[in-house]
């Protein structure tokens, strides 16, 4: 009578090795008929089981003579692994639906793998191949980059193992390199001023808005001059018919910020009072360009169409704001004594703003849409929860 086929998760285990899902451990059946636990480490259990079978069950254990008779073991007439990579990549993209940029990166990685594994069958790929691959293509790369490439191999091999193109995923035993803690320096006030003084109006506006709101490039790029009513998908200004006089100063309206913290997950909605300083920044940004966005400029050359990150020809993408800030920072030279990776980016304006608000005794957490903010007032408008932050302004000294 034929043995009952194993379940898919156990198909690659050696004979007489079983996984006990109740305890999360592996057990081997000894020739005496008794069972012995081999612990929860899959690789260790497989190694012990193979060695035990080789000695105690010669018909089960794989010998060198078997390899000589069948060069590719359990995979006779096996094609080189490179032949399977295009189909595996297609499946990865279909299953995981990554972004267009990530698809392009994976396509480049796949081409390297096709070149590297042009003559190696999947069943013979080992950890040494993983190490050799990284050494060949990414030896001079940073720890972050090398870790990403190991993760790519783990993903590719996991799909290959799932399709029985290799017995195990050889990349799972590859240790990730230790990544150094963030080295980027905080943006000092004097550096902010030096960059600001040389910046065009649109970049000054972006820097001003980030400083006053504590928000990052994505939110800043989306702020509109006027909203008919607050909504959960737009950033912009809702103006009062007449200014409201408060103990802290005039309030001309509310700047609503919709901050998407993590794509597809938690979002935060912040309502910031528009005082004299914010109104001055917004009024100053208006020029001859007709644009619905406070941070705006017309492209200097003809483009092939709008970026997916913008919906108006005058709107700036978050990446463009960051690149322009960094390029001007280097041109001004205020941070040139630092290594490029250590120089503050546009994002560091958030930390500078939080620091300046903190000095004034204003809790910056609610304004920054941090979920652990304690001094916040939650209210609902148009079925959207908004965090109303207290009136506060930063006035930079000349």
In short:
The chain contains twelve helices and nine strands. It is α+β, with helices and mostly antiparallel strands and 398 residues long.
Overall description:
By secondary structure, the chain is an alpha+beta fold. The chain has 3 domains: 8-61, Double Stranded RNA Binding Domain (2-Layer Sandwich); 81-173, Orthogonal Bundle (DNA polymerase, domain 1), CATH 1.10.150; 189-299 and 310-388, hpI Integrase, Chain A (Orthogonal Bundle), CATH 1.10.443. It has helices at residues 42-56, 64-69, 85-96, 100-116, 127-138, 143-162, 189-198, 201-213, 217-222, 276-285, 318-332, 348-359, and strands at residues 17-20, 25-29, 35-37, 223-224, 235-246, 249-260, 267-274, 377-381, 384-388. The strands form 2 sheets. It has a 6-stranded mixed sheet. Helix 3 (85-96) packs across helix 6 (143-162), helix 8 (201-213) runs antiparallel to helix 10 and helix 8 (201-213) packs across helix 12 (348-359). It is elongated. The model is unreliable at 67-73, 262-266 and 372-382 (pLDDT under 50).
